[in-house]
Design a protein that fits this description.
Keywords: DNA-binding, Transcription, Transcription regulation. This is GntR family transcriptional regulator. Helix 3 packs across helix 4, helix 5 crosses helix 7 and helix 6 runs antiparallel to helix 7. Strands 1-3-2 form a three-stranded antiparallel β-sheet. The chain has two domains: 71 residues, Winged helix-like DNA-binding domain superfamily/Winged helix DNA-binding domain (Arc Repressor Mutant, subunit A), CATH 1.10.10.10; 139 residues, GntR ligand-binding domain-like (Four Helix Bundle (Hemerythrin (Met), subunit A)). By secondary structure, the protein is mainly alpha-helical.
Length: 235
């Protein structure tokens, strides 16, 4: 069941997402991973070719990132990657952690037995995917686990707010960070136990720590890639 739900999510992202959003997701991952650096220009033609779309959705996708502050448009020159700092990364994770913690606490009070069963199935599938080295499936199942918790909270407004924050942190890249998968294998069962026991405060606290720890891992990875100089200046 969990794998089917994850496959559905993956299908939506690859087949049904609007083309500009597909472009924005691709370039966003390049930026957050440090594959393209602050100050680099993003040529619409190259972006379009990389994603397999025409220049119009490529430009529209870059305009999405402009609205997010990840790129800016220089007249007569094109789109350029804007600087972001360690604190920018930590702020994004902080916002995600606060919303996710509140949703987890509410889920502990409202989750159904069927919801618990889906979480258990998803986590077992996650463990199997890790053991088999299925990186894409690991990312999808990790997303599915959190999505089940968020939906179980039955708070549409908080879920929408969380979605607006999470889109800045590409799911596949984040799941590939060294140490993230190992930590998730330990922390997800603790979250599941708190939900099963309907311990709202514990579920919220565990979720907050789980998300915030990811900020440290991502900052460490980006430092290792030489993204920042001392003082948070872009390299």
């Amino acid at each position: 069941m969990a794998v089917d739900r994850a496959d559905t999510e993956r299908g939506r992202s690859s087949r049904h997402r609007p083309l500009p959003a597909e472009v924005a997701g691709h370039v966003r991952e390049l930026i957050i991973s440090g594959a393209v650096r602050p100050g680099e220009f993003l040529r619409i033609e190259r972006v379009a070719e990389a994603v397999g779309v025409s220049s119009t959705p490529a430009r529209e996708g870059l305009l999405i990132l402009k609205a997010e502050g990840l790129v800016r448009l220089v007249p007569r020159r094109g789109f350029v990657v804007t600087p972001f700092t360690r604190q920018d990364v930590r702020d994004l994770f902080w916002a995600q952690a606060q919303l996710s913690a509140r949703l987890a606490a509410r889920a502990a009070q409202r989750i159904s037995p069927e919801g618990i069963a889906r979480l258990e199935s998803t986590h077992h599938a996650y463990q199997d995917a890790v053991d088999s080295g299925a990186a894409v499936l690991v990312a999808d199942l990790g997303h599915a686990f959190h999505r089940e918790i968020n939906l179980s909270a039955d708070s549409r407004r908080l879920t929408l707010l969380l979605g607006s924050v999470v889109k800045h942190l590409p799911n596949r890249f984040y799941a590939a960070i060294e140490g993230q998968v190992a930590a998730t294998r330990i922390e997800h069962p603790l979250l599941l136990d708190s939900l099963r026991r309907r311990q709202a405060h514990r579920a919220g606290a565990l979720m907050e720590r789980h998300i915030l720890a990811g900020a440290d891992r991502l900052v460490e990875v980006l430092e290792g890639r030489g993204l920042w100089r001392d003082g948070d200046e872009p390299a």
